[in-house]
Structures
1.
Amino acid sequence: MARMDFEVVVLAGGTSRKLNPLVSQEVPKALLPVANRPVLSYVLELLEASNLKDLIVVVEGEDAALRIGGWISGAYVDRLHVEVAAVPEGVGTAGALRAVASYLTANDVLIVSGDLVTDVPPGAVAATHRRHSAVVTALLCPAPVSGPSDTGTSGGKEKAKKPVRCNIVGLDPTRQYLLHMATGAEVEKDIRVQKSILRAVGQIEIRVDLMDAHMYAFKRSVLQDILDQKDKFHSIRQDILPYLIRTQLNSEVSDNGVIKSESGMDNISSQNDLRWLSQHREIAPSAFQEPHAFGLKSLPDARRTHKCCVYIANESKYCARLNSIQAYSDINRDVVGEASHLSGYSFSAQNNIIHPSAELGSKTTVGPQCMLAEGSKLGDKCSVKRSVIGRHCRIGSNVKIVNSIVMNHVTIEDGCSIQGSVVCSNVQLQERVVLKDCQVGAGYVVTTGSEHKSESLARK
Amino acid sequence: MDMRRPPRTVSDPKVRQVGFVTPSAAPPTRSLSDAPTTVAAASASSPPSGEISLLGSSLSPVMIPPPRHASSDGRPSAPVAVPNPASSLRRDSLRIRVGSYNASEVVLGTPPSASPSSRTDNAASEFSEETMSPWHGRSGTAKVASSFPGSSSEMIVMKTGVGGGGGAGSTPKSPLTTASVVKTLPGISEKEREVLMGTQNDGAGASKTLKEKTTKAERRALQEAQRAAKAAAKEAGAGVKPSTASGSAVVANTKQGKVVKPPPQKKDGPQIAPPSGSSEKKVVDRPPEKDRKKDVPAPRMQFDDKHRVEKAKRRAVVNQFEAKNRVELFRHLPQYIHGTQLPDLEGKFFQLDPMHPSVYKVGLQYLSGQISGSNARCIAMLLAFREAIRDYSTPPEKALVRDLTAKISSYVSFLIECRPLSISMGNTIKFLKNRIAKLPDTMSESEAKSSLQSDIDRFINEKIVIADKVIIRHAVTKIRDGDVLLTYGLSSVVEMILVYAHEVGKQFRVVIVDSRPKLEGQVLLHRLVAKGLNCTYTHINAISYIMHEVTRVFLGAASVLSNGTVYSRVGTACVAMVANAFRVPVLICCEAYKFHERVQLDSICSNELGDPDVISRVSGRQDLNHLDNWADNENLQLLNLSYDATPSDYVSMIITDYGMVCFY
């Protein structure tokens, strides 16, 4: 039996277009290094820490699946029991679930996005889900402040000013039930709230400071029904979740079988009494329990309802999704900075991580919140601040690296200056290159003396 | 102090009787006549002596003493217009002051002669203090009090021991009715009765003698006489194999006996060697001793015992932080900071290994307050256990009976960590464990599991669902057209009664009394109004104003104890007292499975502490924030009690699934 009757599906995605040029055929999104570890490892280790060791990882694209499967079997042999399923590209999250839905047997399913970097215990979401006997429970977390918060550079300020893609979330006054959900694009227009839901709860709290963290607990039977019946549904977030929220007072999903298995009394006539009694004091949004009317004269066609719940993560928890380039640099910065407990490394007294095999030239300084992986060499008079440098990089003299991410096997020649940029693997930066807020795709060669600002450089 | 005591002893004995017996009927004979209505009449017949003596000697500070006119009022047939409510109220309030202050004085200034006497007289009192005895106060008076009922009730316990084997086998339908008294062999029951009478007399004598400061020798003689009587009874009882029918009677008695912790035989055996029949007693004693141990519930944890609390904490699954400003008088109750436990436990959802998911879910629901009300909690627990049993498989080289009992125990302790058990749940767990223990060895695992599951189903069905329906039928006969019914809080069975009465076309009006902080009455109001009932809603501070127009009070209960005390949602006692003062009959609706053999005189020794923060806030009034950060002020302690005890004097009638029992 699955642990606590929960099964876990990790949606690792494929090669996201948004993250170009960082991702490529060789490096699917799930394997993007965050603090020199693939981003997927954060989710897997979070689940492992929660004792969830039987996982299903769904990947878009055969190649990506092979790569991710290879990496997992190497890194997590003897630790996790992972099954990797490949789905064709572009099927969306709902499609990915549809592919594995038939393998699911447990009562509830925990669905986690592979790009989530968080320390919110998945158990909390699962427990909330169980407690409410909900159909779906979503993890919401305080929306992160985008852009580098502590640099004070102009670029950071601009980004902070840029309106964050906000979600509109409607909650009941106790903040347990999800009553409305609208994603960023729909925000510009008016919000339409269903009257029936508003009448049922009396009061809706509209929040825009919450982010959907893409960790959901679903009731398995309901999820499978929806996937079967609504074959147009493409994504969990845009189709399935709004559908469930919309219909929560007028449920079309067959919740019946679930009830029967819950109580399973042979005496059917006492069913209603029992439910009524056992839910007697549940002072939830009142309309949610009205249908289970008084047992002696139960209403013949009681409206069926289901519950959509939320678990709102504590402010002190870290929670971010790697879904944009900005988020990528934010997460990298946070993982070696304020959320350093996530990285799994032990920091030195200078609050940085320098692998013992890394070589530093004379008068080279590596500031706090930096990471220098094994085999990397830095020349003389270099300065590294708030940056992550990958394995086996060769960096010349007089190089400045600030607020940047340098992946593996990168060659940086003398006199380069890199600020707020992401430099992918096998890139060669020739002498006196100046990069500011740039992304350099894998294998690219930046020629001597060139200066780039806010550009995306990649091989054609 | 002494000036005030005599009048109470005069007025009390009649009022404080155990069980549901009417004063007019001679207890032993009455139980023969109409079995169904006098629920646990036999149990009622046995220990009143202990009760009286106990109450005579110490009255707890919280218990509101009964009014003097207790015998005349409260008859449901006569809702007389209150002639002079003000005066009766005043008298009550006067008595309250006298009672409470006086009693505390008694506690503080124990007569020096009394406590040493108790020590020398009966070593059991010390023992009973450390094991579970409902009235162990820390005061000397309580000790004196507990010692004598202890000795007088020894006898009852003996009987238990004798019939212990058969007692457990009682059919689940009737653990509380003692109709079985009729069926027992006449010889035995007669003898028992004789002995009982004897004990009663002894007990009464004891209480009297205590007051007269008897000499040591006298008391010893008395005790020995009791011992001899007891031994005789035992021999008589041991001769006959008790049938299941008599067993159930014994069970009822066991429950009585357990309340008053029996003095341990081992301990006082060497100290006071009884001259007669000491050797044979030991021989006979052994098996009952064992049985008794099984029956006696584990001592309730005293939370002012630091050592024990530390130990329990290490074992605990739920992370428990102790509350800061604890109220001195209630230190023995579990008190933790609310609000920290739930997130902590939720985070550990997948980490706890042996817990069944459904049990875990129920625990979370208790902790979050999502499930409350003793019926709902009980049903939720049973359904969770049912699922756990369904998914259970005996590990290799283990016996199902033992392993499953251990499993259930671990589940129960987890549930206790989430929220202290209600009395109904305790009874239910006892039932379930009993069923497990009684499984025959020859049964296969799947058979045993299905039999347990159907047992649980039957329990829910018979004890709760159908019981409620029966209660409704009974209660509706008490509602007449034109009545104004008052109810307090949110009781599932009262709600069903009101709705049913409305459906059958009775014309009545409902007054819903509510109280902060839970305001559960609003839910009831909402539902009743939606069903078209005519309702009035008020808070408990207006109870004396609204009581004028009320003709009947219907209340739910968390438990009814064997001395008739109604243990219920806090505020119930107040409502019942005011109703009593206005001569309005108070009808308590309580399923029989919630009855408990414990005797509780106040709501201090056993209660549950709620979240103190909720009483510092007023819903909808953000500006009333004077008590924010109250925990920082060491001089301020907030107390949010969950239950209170209503003395039986305020109750006119208890409506159970076995019928209606009148109190006078």
2.
Amino acid sequence: MKPSAKMAKLVPLLAVFFYLVCVSEAVFEDQVGKFDWRRQYVGKVLFASFDSPSQSSKKLFVATDKNIFASLNSRTGDLFWRHVDKMGPEGAVDTLLVNAQDALMVIGDGRLLRSWDTNVGGLNWEVVLDTGSFQAACFVGIQDTVKHVAVLKKTAISLHYLSNGHQKWVENLPDSDTVKYQAVYSGGGEEVFVLGMVPHSHLTITVYSLEDGEIIRQVTGPQLSSCVVVGRGVLMCVDNYTQALYTLAIQAEDSPQFRQVLLQSLDLEVSQDFQPVLVSTQPHPARSPLPEFFLQLGPDHHILLQLSEDGSTIAPLRDFQPAFLVSFATTGEKTVAAVMAPKNTTVSLLYPGLYVHAFLKKDDSVGYRVLVQTEDHALTFIQLLARSRVVWTREEALADVVTMEMVDLPLTGTQAELEGEFGKKADGLLPMVMKRLSSQVILLQAWMAHLWKLFYEARKPRSQIKNEVTIETLSRDEFNLQKMMVMVTASGKLFGIDSKSGTILWKHYLENVQPNAAFKLIVQRTTAHFPHPPQCTLLIKDKDTGLATLHVFNPIFGRKSQISLPALPRPILQSLLLPVIDQDYAKCLLLVDDQYKVTAFPSTKNVMQQLQEMASSIFFYLVDSEQGTLSGFRLRKDLSSELIWEVVLPTEVQKIVAVKGKRPSEHVHSQGRVMGDRSVLYKYLNPNLLAVVTESTDTHPERAFVGMFLVDGVTGRIIHEAVQRKARGPIHFVHSENWVVYEYWNTKSRRNEFSVLELFEGTELYNSTVFSSLDRPHLPQVLQQSYIFPSPITTMEATLTEKGITSRHLLVGLPSGAILSLPKMFLDPRRPEVVNEHSREENLIPYAPEMPIRTEWFINYNQTISRLKGIYTAPSGLESTCLVVAYGLDIYQTRVYPSKQFDVLKDDYDYVLISSVLFALFFATMISKRLAEVKLLNRAWR
Amino acid sequence: MASGGPSFLLLSMVPTILLLCIDFACCNTGRRTSDGLDTDFTGFSVPLEHSFEVDDVSQFRVRGALQLRGGRETSVSLSQNQLSEEDRSTLKEVAAVDGLYRIRVPRVSLSADRQSDRPMDGFLTAFVRACSLVESHLSDVITLHTDVSGFLIGVSIVTIPGACRGTEVEDEVDLEAFNTTLNVIAPTNAPQPETALFIERMDMENEKRGKPQEQKSFFAKYWYLILGGAIFLMASSSAQAPAGGAEEQQS
């Protein structure tokens, strides 16, 4: 009775203790935004619209390829509001129509029709449309008021009220199996026109009554392409074959006829192999379009034409060449045509989107603003007044970050000078002395300059001192907390971002990157080797052909490096960074091609020599998930390689989902864990260990399983093989130190579960000095425990610190956009079922099957990150601090302190008290010493 | 061991045997459909091949045969040949240049009923440094790994001790016969969250802590009310009799 009562008392005590230990993450209100920042993005703009035709309007609406509808501030480029819909085709925006206060969107290939209030971004209504793929939509208005919207689908047309979304009528389209309906038009009358084409045959126009959806009449015509409505209900088409324009008055009651106008008669000619395109404008949906229209005759050739009042003649107004993009904009009664022409022909950026906003200025003249979407996913807003200027630019490529690295900033000039002195090779005594003296002089100069700056700035008011980060002022801070984030985006644009402020310091657009390319970013030389600049290498691999290219650049300035690149004629299977460094301190990168030949980069003589010496100890592995094979190779002296081991997982049973090694930069501080009885349990720290995760091909909930294999990457030895029954993916896992944590879906209990594997060598180390995969005959002990996790997760990463002393936390990205910092202590397979003396001594938390989610563990408080895709962690110069970057649609950077800031004095540390106590003690000692001397002297005289 | 005929290569067959069987009983679901027949199954053998060449171009020769015996407990035994004089010298030469000693087994299924289904092609290979094999006097541990349905997915070989210290092996006899330990390892089942045990423990703790407290607290909390009630009852019952007298007695 007695011990159990004691234990019962201890359990809550322990709980309180761990609670105190673990609560460390919560942010105080005054710390918000001090160490962290978030940038929100929307993606590549598909549709854009301006608010109202006045100069004071600030709103700008965009719908993007990331299924986002957002409102931007046109003065600053900031977001007013943003609505993030489902990923994939289900949430894809088909069209965006804006009329006064209503923004209409058709979503998911005609699945939903939504109306938004453009003032506040609230949803007015949403209706589910009938099935059928979406073709076109337009507003329908009578007598200058827009009351309806028409939605054209493949087989039906429906009319909805603008006020509440209710359907007025829906009609099946005639002959919808042969006719391809393309466009819907209303010119302010009582009729709705639908244009359809029968491929290689003819064109039909069906006219519906606005009132009840009855077919009033049908008109057929010859086979044409690219049709628009111009002027007062004149259908204008262009045909490439006959090189002619065709006009048809569609509103005429009696059977109208097409009129042909040869392009030759207008002195026009279409470029070779170019399909001519017509562009017209309808300023108000309840009125007819303007008689002016553009005809595109070539990739960079546009012509502005005008249809005469009676619709009989076409006259060219102006020829624009070169001109890539044209657009119309209207304000009040005035309409402007905007043409984008390249200033110099070397500009190769394509402009997929041009949106013009024209507005009346106070003096009734027309002003323009232009929104340009470029191919590198940058969104630029230009004001065209007396002097054109770029108002803002949004780098929307950052909405899709693929991979990133953090690079230390370079030292300041003075620090670098000192470093450089040690870096250079010694050449005699006298030059060394001279060098030392010169560097001291430089240091003195820098110090004087610094003093002068201090003095100068002290006189200026504080607000005037600029504290902006520029590429010139970049230098490492005391604790290396500020770093350069090198981000690679899916569009092929590279960014260098200051981690402290989030400012983009450099950007570089890689042209000719395939949309499905895979990227791998490698830091070949860090900043530590002054005067050699740091060097990053981006491996770009085409997923279809497997061919790879290298882009070598300086991560601090973004400049492409002039190093000669190796020729890579064959598909690349694997790349590995060796610790071998050449005479310029660049690490050697090995690229393995599909014939298992190895290319080294850089391939200097020095490196080749080292490689030949080390060849027999360089091993690499390849994974073929289609065949289910894992194979190991050893490098030969002639840079070919030989197969030395093979593990085959039959694909009929399970398929390899992911393979992960450990991060090479990781440090493990302690070799073992001290147990309750003061013995040491040594960790199995195999740097070559690979965690291979498989999923069963059988997806039946009773038979599905997830396999976890731990394989030595050098010998191919399967260290551990475990099967999680009744489980399936998606699997997220972290492999670090001596543990693997993975998360899966339990198909039987229908919940997410965490499982942790830890490997120990036992109480004795086999060979404590060095680890060799070739000489480790005994298998490690494997401990495993599983827990219920009350939320699905999107990504997972472990914190990383400089020396590995700080306890580890897992950063778990949740679908809600929060990042949970989960102490690894909770994921410990040695958590005891029953508490005893030893486990209490070890501070083990008693086992509980459910993992808690505490809101104070959310490191990003209310700064949620939409569509979180990855988390990157990097150590800082402070052991307690780990830098975290989370990316997805948004980018969020913060610092975490898994063991609190044990190596930093608090902000409110009482310096006065401690120094006064010190001084007091010092004087007390002096006085008492004096007194003691006097007393001793007196005693001696006695 | 007495037969050490140096010139006759394969005459001396010393069967160094066998080991082990890790039971499959724990982890088979769909595999064991024909339980009754398993005991009658006679087993089959697959070759274990090895290769050690000075120029490191692998040329596999038969080292022995793995006797697989399906059944309730899959057992695997190994019978293998002695190394010939020539082999021994080659092995020592390979060890001297730090070459590799490789082994391979064909991809087969250890479970009896799957074996005949579909012959699989290809081999599973593993290696060990030849010098460690020599220095350990040919004492090695070969482990066969299977997946959930009994297919062989990997093989590994280690020597005990595993290090190469450069010690010279003088005695030729040490390199004649393999001293092999053979293991078969099937995947272990990863644990599920232990909810049942935890609830049991919680209940026990609650019982221990909760019950005596509750019983005690009921009387401890309300004894004065009960007592007061009793006194009140007594007082009111006595008040019906001579009024006033009872009150005086009480005080």
